[in-house]
Amino acid sequence: MRKATLSLIAWLTFCAAVLALFVPSFYIKGDVGLGNQRSPVASLSKNWQVHYGPVPPVEGADQWQAFGESEWRKLERYTGTIWVKRTLPAIPWRNPYLFVGGMNRFEVELDGRSVYRFNMDDGPVYNQFLMTRHPIRIDPGDEGKTLSLRIEWDRLPFFANAWILAGNPDQMLAQFLRNDAVRYVYAVLYMVATLAGIVLYARRREKLFFWFSTLAFTAGFGLLFLCTSLQWFADVGALYYWRDLLLPIGVWAFAGLYAEALGSVNRLPVRITKNTLLIYAVACFVAGLKSPTLYWKMLTAGFPWLALASIGVVTFAMFKYPAVSQPPIEKKWLRRGFIVQVVCGLGHILSNSFSSLDKWLIHAPYLLTIIGNLLANGLFLFMICNAMILIYRVRSVYRESERNAKELQSKNSELEQFHRNLEQLVATRTMELEEVNRSLSDTLREKAETMAEMSVLEERNRIAHEMHDVVGHTLTAAIVQLEAGKKLAAKEGALPIGKLDTVSGLVRKGLDDIRKTVRMLKTDAPHANIEASLRELIRETVETMEVAIEAYIDIPRELGRLTEQVVYHALQEGLTNGIRHGRCSWFKYSLRPSEGGDTLDIRLWNDGVPYGQAKLGFGLTTMMERIRLLGGTFSVGSSTDEDGAPAGCEIAITLPLQGQSAEDRKAL
């Protein structure tokens, strides 16, 4: 508590020092007249006469009246032409000038001779009548001449003290610079704060920095264009005019800043206030384009009430929606800045609203100067409070960065240790992998040798199967013919030359079949038609084996090469076994697709001895292996006669047709 009290006392002392000491010097002390030679500048605000109407008064006619305070007050409701005149007093300056202001359209004459015109033609008038000073050169010899003005007036207030000043230009500039010195300093500080806020917003993307930079921008340029001396160095007449538009924008930024800091951006009263201020600023801009009088009245008569309402909403938000997670130091500086800005802003509004205060404080010029600078100094203190909030946030970010850096450093040390451990683990695993690789190489070499031996054995088996299927059938036919020849020789007592010729042909055919089989084992051997081959085999069997074969062959489409070989050798092996072992004389053979069309059904029946439970021989075993390799089924067993008794043998084979060629290629 003691620390908080000391902090509050220090802050109040600082505020008092800024408000009491950091103020511009005042240059006119009281009502300065021509008789006071100590003052370098005189105000020609008295001894004027006025005439109203578009037609100038007739010379010598009594159409003029005194232009005093009562007439000044009437001008705020008057629209039209005004004629004013007075006699120039003694001119003691070596380089005398008149500095005319407070009007938007006027013409100056000396003894009826036009010496200066401003905005007398029709067209837009973007002129801040209280800020712009129009220098008019006069001569010391013009003393006693009639100074007259024709003014086009449009319901604006009249400020006599700022109307017409007389003096040397260098003295006038020196006094303006002395009056504007602190404003220049404040403007530079606020511009620096604007740049700092923009940089922070660009880096952090926090809206608080955006509102701060916007508020600093409006304060900086608002104070810059409050400097009357600026027009001595640049043409800033239009900038003076639009300067007042920064007021609603500044209050809009003020409301946005506090809403963001308090975390009440989405509260309905705050949103309505911000949107109203923005809309009002746009309306003032449109009014400024159309009517300088409406533009002035919106900013001086309507806007103060809107500003008070906005301050009330911000005050309500501070107490109604306090940010629970907001650090206490931010709350402290928010309250201090708010109180300072409200007190100084209300003091400025009240001092402008009650012009009679100037008469009461005329004998206390220092206090009057302090009141006149309440807005600038209060804004300076308010920006200090906001800067403290930004500094605290930046320091928080910096501390957070330091903490993150330490954590990263710790994590980096852990990562380096992990990297070293990983290198050791990789080295160990590499040695193990090299050992496994050597073992695997040995295993692969042994496997390659084994597979080579298996390939040789498979090739031998394949050749043996082919030789068995091809030569067995031919030799069986030769044996049948030899047996028949023996019987004829025994019966007739002479060698049957025809039978021997048949046996000789069969042996030669067997030799040709062996050669043909060797050629078929080559991958580039020519491809024969399967149906023609089957019918040729059936014809030769019928002619040489003395058996009858009833065949039905229907091949739906081209089969794979291995499938064709299996189909051919299955028929060949079935015929050979039936003749050799079954002693049959009649075969039935059918080859056709199934009803669904997805398989090929093969049936071979004979009338020989019943097959029974005989064990499969070499040929049938080879046939079964080939069929299963193609994904088919194989069965062999006895058939039945008309009485249902076992008779003969029947072989049933089913081969798949879908994707058959791909399976054949895979098997081959």
TrEMBL record:
UniProt xrefs under InterPro entries: HATPase_C_sf (IPR036890), Sensor_HK_TwoCompSys (IPR050482), Sig_transdc_His_kin_sub3_dim/P (IPR011712)
EC number, UniProt record: 2.7.13.3
Entry's transmembrane regions: 184-202, 209-233, 245-265, 277-296, 302-321, 333-350, 370-392
Catalytic activity of the protein: ATP + protein L-histidine = ADP + protein N-phospho-L-histidine
Top-rank taxon, per record: Bacteria
SUPFAM superfamilies per record: ATPase domain of HSP90 chaperone/DNA topoisomerase II/histidine kinase
Domain Signal transduction histidine kinase subgroup 3 dimerisation and phosphoacceptor: 459-524
UniProt xrefs under CDD domains: HATPase_UhpB-NarQ-NarX-like
Coiled-coil intervals: 398-460
One Pfam family hit: HisKA_3
Tagged with keyword Membrane: yes
GO molecular-function terms, A-Z: kinase activity
UniProt keyword terms in alphabetical order: ATP-binding, Coiled coil, Kinase, Membrane, Nucleotide-binding, Phosphoprotein, Transferase, Transmembrane, Transmembrane helix, Two-component regulatory system
Protein name: histidine kinase
